[in-house]
Automatic annotation (TrEMBL):
High-level lineage: Eukaryota, Metazoa, Chordata, Craniata, Vertebrata
Protein name as catalogued: Unconventional myosin-IXa
Record-linked PANTHER family: UNCONVENTIONAL MYOSIN-IXA (PTHR46184:SF3), UNCONVENTIONAL MYOSIN-IXB-LIKE PROTEIN (PTHR46184)
Keywords: Actin-binding, ATP-binding, Coiled coil, Cytoplasm, Membrane, Motor protein, Myosin, Nucleotide-binding, Synapse
GO CC terms, sorted: actin filament; axonal growth cone; cytoplasm; membrane; myosin complex; synapse
Amino acid sequence: MSVNDVGGRRRFEDSEYTLHIYPGSIAEGTIYCPITARKTSTAAEVIDSLINKLQLEKTKCYVLAEVKEFGGEEWILNPTDCPVQRMMLWPRMALENRISGEDYRFLLREKNLDGSIHYGSLQSWLRVTEERRRMVERGFLPQPQQKDYDDLCSLPDLNEKTLLENLRNRFKQEKIYTYVGSILIVINPFKFLPIYNPKYVKMYDNHQLGKLEPHIYAVADVAYHAMLQRRKNQCIVISGESGSGKTQSTNFLIHHLTALSQKGFASGVEQIILGAGPVLEVR
């Protein structure tokens, strides 16, 4: 075995996975709780994370159970078992959360003082887990409230799925702007939003990037004041596919920059610059 093989194996062991643990009646209102774990993480470590995340009573004893179909037999994991390793043995369709005849999942169960497992009533289990989960998936119940992040760099679990979900949640709230550090992501709403009036020009005047809700005015304001302070030319790059809103974003930038430079005095500069736009766009 080469040194590269050892390094590759170590990186594989350190890879993080997300486990979806269904607490059932133990945590009312929670469909599932995502827990980040490694291949070597034990069931005891995952349970500790669940207790902290769901704020469960630490005086009680909990166990993890693996089930391969709804209503099927539950396999209780030993404290030293590794849930991620067991999950990696599941069929691909189960790992991709596709609808199939088998329903693989991990459940959180409470252990009684005599060593038996407290399953709770079937009615409660149906109401809190399976029935509610399927109704949420079909759109009959609202999705659980999730915190949206105005900067994607602040996401606790950064991957393609969480990134897109965060952008989607913000878009549904008509928050079309999101930061990635100093970069601004804009999702075209294809309708006018009342966030470009003089009140917003004044609101974003001379504010540090990230202090307020993401906005294209914030980018223009930072560039404008950096030009004044450093006495150097500034550049704002706008990129995107056809129809993504580049021209309109340019208009908003020019509007804010002229408003800052003119300080409320109408000079016609903005209209002159905007009028040159169609000529500049011709290739």
